[in-house]
Amino acid sequence: MGAVGGSVFHFIKGTYNSPNGMRLSGGAQALRMNAPRVGGSFAVWGGLFSTFDCAMVYARQKEDPWNSIIAGAATGGFLSMRQGPGAAGRSALMGGILLALIEGAGLMLNRVLANPQNLPPLPDDDPNMAAAMAGVGGFPGMPQAPPMAPPPPEAASSSGGWLGGLFGKKEEKKPAASGGKSEILESFDTPSTPIPSFEYK
């Protein structure tokens, strides 16, 4: 991604800064000189970011946007460490802000796309629709799949406020019905269905 983006950017910049009659060769020369550097820098940044992100997932035992924000800050600070603590701190702050903006935009986009609003209501009592739905799905002689149940109303409720559920709220753990005893699933102990044989008899 960095090599392709750097190639396009430096080719355009090279053609713009070259004299008349030499624009194509100037753009190609700028591309050859700068695109590998941009691609390598992008690869180093992406590798460090992924390393810090996976380390945060392992340390926190959670998969949420805070991991990416902290990983962006750590990557920015780590890459600017040679310029001193002040530059590393500023770079870490900018990396954290950049990743916070990206994660926030992704969450808002998911929230907007997940809850489509202003849709017309579905017709409930249309006999033609019921007849059409009854004939859809399955093959003759095969059983029909059971209808899917709607999600429980508790899952659909959102926390109050515009920014209230930005990072999600912590779900309370409910006690198990077994009285605190751990259940052992016996799915691996039961014999599996026999493997069909395709031999011709």
UniProtKB/TrEMBL annotation:
Tell me the membrane topology, using the record's own terms.
Multi-pass membrane protein
List locations, semicolon-separated: Mitochondrion inner membrane
- Which Gene Ontology terms of cellular component type are present? TIM23 mitochondrial import inner membrane translocase complex
Keywords annotated in UniProt: Membrane, Mitochondrion, Mitochondrion inner membrane, Protein transport, Translocation, Transmembrane, Transmembrane helix, Transport
State the Gene Ontology terms under molecular function: protein transmembrane transporter activity
- Give start-end ranges for the coiled-coil region(s): none
Superkingdom of this entry's organism? Answer: Eukaryota
Report residue spans for region: Disordered. Answer: 144-201
Ranges of Pro residues composition bias in the record: 144-154
Q: Per UniProt, what is one Pfam family of this protein?
A: Tim17
Predominantly, its location class is mitochondrion
Q: Give GO terms for biological process.
A: protein import into mitochondrial matrix
Entry annotated with the keyword Acetylation = no
Could you say which protein family the record assigns here? Belongs to the Tim17/Tim22/Tim23 family.
Identify this protein by name. Uncharacterized protein
